[in-house]
Specification:
4-stranded antiparallel beta sheet, single chain
Length: about 290
């Protein structure tokens, strides 16, 4: 069924020239899912970003949390727009994102860019450097970003000494693979509104999992419409039209600095979103709104 969109609006130059994702309450809007509350999962790990992230994939004891805090001691802050890792480089360390947003991308010879991943607070970038020792893509920074630089030998030693950390990190890597499969499905098969709705739902879930969503359900989104277009395989104008439709229909409001999901169940139905692939909670059976297919 063809989707009827409102008249084209001039795209905003930036959806969110924000600084760093704000931290909010550790709750999750009611979605009918099962499993422990996010606040209960994260309470023991305190302010350690990587521990908060890994707590979604396994139980961490006090010794493991302390070990992760030690890994985060060598910190550096980079400016928005800097390149953290260049394609073909051989990084000397694994980077832990302590604050900020990074993204994975590649350019074609004709200058077109494809973004195929976002790294949020608590994410690891990239544990596989232990094996490959070379990056096959660029990693740039959308915001001022604080990272911890962990030498390969230090991370290897911690993984050998603490099986709980090793297992949680392995599960997180499997989830990253699952996210990439969903993104391939997004680019290849979903309609434009479904692509954007699915992306919004996923980013929201990931930020909820580390307690970075505000009490009203809003969260900072430091992306330009060009970034979103290069992520979804759409044009900037098409992104603008879809966002306008979401706002008019009371689904979501993405206004420069913040995105607020106004009707989460309906937005999930538009996307056919099933959070099970993120492994944060029990799976939710997708139900697709045919008007957006």
């Amino acid at each position: 069924m063809e989707l009827t969109l409102p008249p084209v609006a001039e795209p905003d130059p930036a959806l969110a020239p924000a600084d760093v994702p704000g931290s909010g309450v550790l709750g999750r809007p009611s979605d009918g899912g099962s499993g422990p509350a996010i606040g209960a999962l994260l309470a023991p790990v305190g302010g350690c970003a990587i521990a908060r992230r890994l707590a979604n994939f396994g139980d961490l004891g006090s010794e493991e949390i302390a070990a992760l805090q030690r890994l985060s001691h060598n910190r550096k802050t980079f400016a928005a727009g800097e390149t953290l890792v260049r394609q073909g480089s051989k990084p000397f360390a694994v980077f832990l994102i302590l604050k900020g947003v990074a993204y994975r991308y590649k350019y074609l010879a004709n200058g077109k860019r494809q973004i195929f991943g976002y790294l949020l607070t608590g994410d690891v970038c990239d544990a596989h450097f232990i094996l490959s020792r070379q990056s096959d893509h660029d990693i740039g920074l959308l915001t001022q970003t604080e990272v911890a630089m962990v030498p390969m030998h230090e991370l290897t030693a911690v993984l050998a000494e603490y099986p709980g950390i090793r297992d949680a990190l392995s599960k997180m890597t499997l989830v990253e693979d699952a996210v990439l499969r969903e993104w391939l499905l997004n680019v290849g098969q979903r309609s434009a509104p479904q692509k954007l709705a699915h992306f919004i739902c996923e980013i929201s879930e990931r930020l909820l999992a580390v307690g970075s969503v505000n009490p009203d359900g809003s969260f900072d989104v430091p992306l330009t419409q060009s970034d979103v277009a290069d992520t979804m395989g759409l044009t900037v104008v098409h992104v603008s039209r879809c966002l306008q439709k979401f706002r008019l229909e009371g689904l979501a409001d993405w206004s420069r600095h913040q995105l607020t999901i106004l009707d989460r169940p309906r937005l999930q139905r538009v996307a056919g979103f099933d959070a099970g692939y993120l492994h944060f909670r029990g799976p939710h059976a997708p139900s697709v709104d045919p008007a957006y297919v």
